[in-house]
Design brief:
Rossmann fold, seven-stranded mixed β-sheet, 8 helices, single chain, 314 residues, Methionyl-tRNA Fmet Formyltransferase, Chain A, domain 2
Length: 314
């Protein structure tokens, strides 16, 4: 069976590596163009490209895979199946129609819940206790194709989006292998989604991740872990008379503490605890503007309590 793999980030790269280790033959790989990184802004290969090159696979990096002039490149392989994992582009109909068996997508949610760009982040921010991976037959409508198979996993209450994504990859790759084997044997069974139950996500921007200390501690805890590692949740603080932005990396709810939102209930050797709309939030790890990530205790050791205060937005 001739498979063309579409994907870009680490989640997709680990999935591709797993398939190759399990003996699945990949005819070619389509991924995003190299991205400038670091101070030098030198283009660096995306993770899927690195894996593909390590295995000597043909790699294509079009600006848009659905551009009409790229279609002949894919058609030359006479593909049986397209496998799409976090590619980052809506595949147009002329490509969906190309493979003999169609196109399948690995989506990190339990569809029809959380269609769109940020299903992992949304599950955590909304306080869900369970999520999973869905493999669906792709259609032109966003994440609306028939479901082929799913797997569920619990969400730990302190798990970040980065950690959850790794856990989903660990269960999603074997599920994808199972589905590919079903295509090989002609035993695939598909179930239509209930579109009335669909929910949608949007890209998470920095403007959405500012911490408002007037909100309940649990809501802020979920926002912070859902925005970690990117784009990151943040707050404003007055540090020695200057307003600075601080990224909050890891927190814990203190259910037995409370106070006026934004007040520091602890600051020093015992760490940092901030009062919220209800209860309080212990800051475990943070990253001050222009500095490295550090523990809250490391940060607090450098200041006296009157040199640091949180700014409550109005």
């Amino acid at each position: 069976m001739k498979i063309i793999f579409f994907g870009s980030p680490e989640f997709a790269a680990k999935t591709l590596e797993y398939l190759l280790q399990q003996g699945i033959e990949i005819a070619a790989v389509v991924t995003k163009p190299d991205k400038p990184k670091g101070r030098s802004k030198e283009p660096q290969p995306v993770p899927v490209k690195i894996v593909a090159q390590q295995h000597g696979l043909p790699v294509y990096q079009p600006l848009k895979a659905s551009a009409p002039d790229f279609a002949p490149t894919l058609a030359q392989y006479q593909p049986d199946l397209f496998v799409v994992v976090a590619y980052g582009e809506i595949i147009k109909q002329h490509l969906l129609d190309m493979p003999r068996l169609g196109c399948i997508n690995v989506h990190p949610s339990l569809l029809p819940k959380y269609r769109g760009a940020t299903p992992v982040e949304s599950a955590i921010i909304n306080g869900d206790v369970e999520t999973g991976v869905t493999i669906m037959h792709m259609v032109l409508q966003l994440d609306a194709g028939d479901i082929i198979d799913t797997v569920k996993i619990p969400i730990d209450p302190n798990m970040t989006a980065g950690e959850l994504r790794q856990a989903l990859c660990a269960v999603g790759a074997p599920l994808l292998l199972k589905v590919i084997k079903q295509f090989e044997t002609g035993t695939v069974i598909e179930t239509p989604q209930n579109h009335a139950e669909a929910t949608f996500t949007t890209k998470l921007e920095l403007e959405h991740t500012q911490v408002d200390w007037r909100r309940p501690a649990l809501q802020l805890h979920n926002l912070i872990r859902g925005a970690t590692p990117a784009p990151g949740a943040w707050c404003l603080a007055n540090i020695r008379g200057e307003m600075k932005r601080i990224k909050l990396l890891r927190t814990r709810v203190e259910s037995d503490l409370s106070g006026t939102p934004g007040d520091l209930l602890q600051f020093g050797k015992e760490g940092i605890v901030a009062a919220c709309g209800t209860q309080a939030l212990r800051i475990m790890e943070l990253q001050p503007e222009g500095k490295r990530p550090m523990t809250a205790k490391e940060f607090a050791a450098g200041y006296s309590k009157d040199q640091f205060s949180l700014i409550v937005t109005q």
